[in-house]
Amino acid sequence: MTETSQVTPAETVKPTFRSEISVELVKHAASDQDVLWAARVSTAGEQSLDELKKDPERSKGLINYLMRDRHGSPFEHNSMTFFISAPIFVFREFMRHRVGWSYNEESGRYRELQPVFYVPGPERKLVQEGRPGKYVFVDGTPEQHSLTERSMRESYRQAYETYQEMLAAGVAREVARAVLPVGLYSSMYATCNARSLMHFLGLRTQHELAKVPSFPQREIEMVGERMEELWAGLMPLTHAAFNKNGRMAP
Ligand SMILES: Cc1cc2nc3c(=O)[nH]c(=O)nc-3n(C[C@H](O)[C@H](O)[C@H](O)COP(=O)(O)OP(=O)(O)OC[C@H]3O[C@@H](n4cnc5c(N)ncnc54)[C@H](O)[C@@H]3O)c2cc1C
Questions:
Q1: Count of domains in the chain?
Q2: Which residues form the active site (predicted)?
Q3: Are strands 127-129 and 116-118 parallel, antiparallel or unpaired?
């Protein structure tokens, strides 16, 4: 669900409301072979690169063995950079992942923040039941959906108007941004390797093959699902071994 921004005659920018997030793989040097040459240096030394094309079944078996027995370092010799556009509350959760990740995010001090705001789509389950850490989410009534959408839109509009008023009055961006809510979209580059991505996916996605289930917020899970899809295309053997061994980072 996307509405386009319009400039009114009074030059006030109208907010855009979105329910989807975007994830693009902008740069990568990542393949299953990167795992193999790194692992085989143990036994083949400088010849590990020559071993690469030998026996694909053995390669698959080696990757699975490394994953199963938690030999994690061979999964670090690769790199993926994602461009992500998502609400600020997703980035707050995302940046808790400290190890094997590099981040750069747009600045609310150096640029005027654009009025793009998150409103859950109709498929987003709205009502939580159960105990903390193990919630079950259910759909919610049409009334709850329309209240959520209406309230969010009203509140976002009001907050953005105040932000613009303050900027127009000469207040610095870094001060005025305090009135904006965490449903505002931000954008960042996030660079990781397969090992740090697997750790992230183990915690931020729900999956029937997970040995240790996690209960992430749906919006960060949407980011995780898209990253996983892109990563699986680059490193299919590693991805399959991740699933086969309970979706835990080695
Ligand atoms: C469902 C869910 C609910 C959550 N709820 C909350 C919450 O209510 N409040 C909250 O504050 N956070 C919450 N978090 C965030 C969580 O506590 C972690 O900060 C986040 O998942 C990142 O995990 P990590 O530390 O393992 O990852 P990374 O920071 O990437 O670290 C990777 C691994 O490196 C090692 N490591 C990293 N730093 C250290 C260190 N300082 N000392 C020792 N070992 C280290 C650990 O083995 C760690 O697993 C939640 C996370 C999830 C998935």
A1: 1
A2: 204 (involved in ionization of n3 of dump, leading to its activation)
A3: unpaired
Q: At what angle do helices 236-244 and 32-44 cross, to 10 degrees?
A: 80
- Backbone φ/ψ region at 130: left (φ over 0), alpha (ψ -120 to 50), beta: left
- Using CA atoms, how far residue 32 sits from 53, 71, 75, 93, 233, in Å, is 12, 15, 9, 29, 10
Nearest atom in ligand 1 to the alpha carbon of residue 204 is 53
Q: Give the position, in ligand 1's atom list, of the atom nearest the Cα of 101.
A: 30
The ligand 1 site (C-beta within 6 Å) comprises 96-99, 199, 203-204, 214-216
By most ligand atoms within 8 Å of CB, the mutation choice from 103, 203, 218, 247 for ligand 1 is 203
Q: Structure pTM?
A: 0.92
CATH, residue 117: 3.30.1360.170
Residue with CA closest to ligand 1 atom 48: 99
In a domain, 145, yes or no: yes
Q: What is the pLDDT of residues 78-130, one digit of tens each?
A: 999 999 999 999 999 999 999 999 999 999 999 999 999 999 999 999 999 98
- Domain contains 216: yes
**Ligand 1 atom 34: residue of nearest CA:** 99
SS3 17: strand
Question: Does the residue 3 lie in any domain?
Answer: no
Residue 178: domain span: 16-244
